[in-house]
Amino acid sequence: MSGSAGEAPLGLLVMAYGTPQTLDEVEPYYTHIRHGRPPTPELLQELVERYRAIGGRSPLHEITEEQARKLAARLSERLGRPVQPFVGYLHIAPFIAEAVDRLVAAGVERAVGLVMAPQYSAASVALYLNDAREALARYQQAPAVTYIDHFHDHPGFVACLARRVRDTLEQVPADIRPRVEVIFTAHSIPQHVIDRGDPYDRHVRETAERVARAAGLDRWHVAYQSAGRTSDVWIGPDVGDVIRELAGRGAAGVVVCPAGFVADHLEVLYDIDIECKQIADELGIYLARTPSLNAADDFIDVLADVVMDRLGETRHEAAAGGGAPAGEGEPGR
């Protein structure tokens, strides 16, 4: 696909979970997650306190906007045509439908829709796609949109995570490094979704297996985190339980790689950096986390590769090189 700067821009619809920008926005945000049911005062206060613990807000919006800008620029360079980014969120403004409205108003004739989640699930990624398709359906002459609903096994994505795992392990004190094990985590989802044949757990495990192989790991595990506060059974094992089990078996520490996330947000900055660290400290073992992908150049190259693949312009530049080392869900996702 080639073109000139004079043609209509390619639209880049980047979709992410969203996060409140202020503590006052936590209640409407949480209510939206709960499908219009306000949280109890206790649940609301707990979530507010989690945001306070990471400085009062999550950086997810700024990171997502930077990811979109950098990806659009990278794609424009490769395609030789303008690429215009539009960012929309699932649970807070600007919502996905608002981003679609801006995309249509800009005169875009063709677009790519990218959900910022590596592994597909009907309980997560499908919700973003449904919102985008419903918004587009309101227009008689909607642009053609090509959607990307997973990239969990893309060689460049695997290489990005493997680099960060290796770099983090190299920073572990040498005397305990042989007894440090790696835990790959992703957001938990309700078990009944998996029981209906959803590929999410398989995608997560495929990511972990490929990254472990690329990083040369002998000891690694898959765990889930941040299960919602509902009556449903959520998939496990829980990362806290895995940390306790490994400590009981003699591990000197763990490196946590949040392979289901692509940016710093509450579930990384609180659930891993604070909650998991507290568990490790209580057990007297070491804990480190791999750096989030955020808007690092090597990850932007991966996303550009993924988009080029879907557009029929396959050039895997990210998987081939080293790249510089450098993932928002909330409770109830």
Features:
333 residues, alpha/beta, Rossmann fold, four-stranded parallel beta sheet, 42% helix, disordered C terminus
Secondary-structure blueprint of this entry?
Layout: E1 10-16, H1 26-33, H2 41-53, H3 60-79, E2 83-89, H4 96-105, E3 110-115, H5 125-136, E4 144-148, H6 155-170, E5 180-187, H7 191-195, H8 200-215, E6 220-225, H9 239-248, E7 253-257, H10 266-269, H11 271-283, E8 286-289, H12 297-310
Parallel strand pairs: 1-2, 1-3, 3-4, 5-6, 5-7, 7-8
Structure description:
With 333 residues, the chain is of the alpha/beta class. The protein folds into two domains: 10-151 and 296-310, Rossmann fold (3-Layer(aba) Sandwich); 155-289, Rossmann fold (3-Layer(aba) Sandwich). The chain is 42% helix and 14% strand. The protein has a four-stranded parallel sheet with strand order 2-1-3-4, sandwiched between helices. A four-stranded parallel sheet has the order 6-5-7-8, sandwiched between helices. Helix 6 runs antiparallel to helix 12 (297-310) and helix 9 (239-248) packs parallel to helix 11. The protein starts with 9 loop residues before the first strand and ends in a 23-residue tail after the last helix.
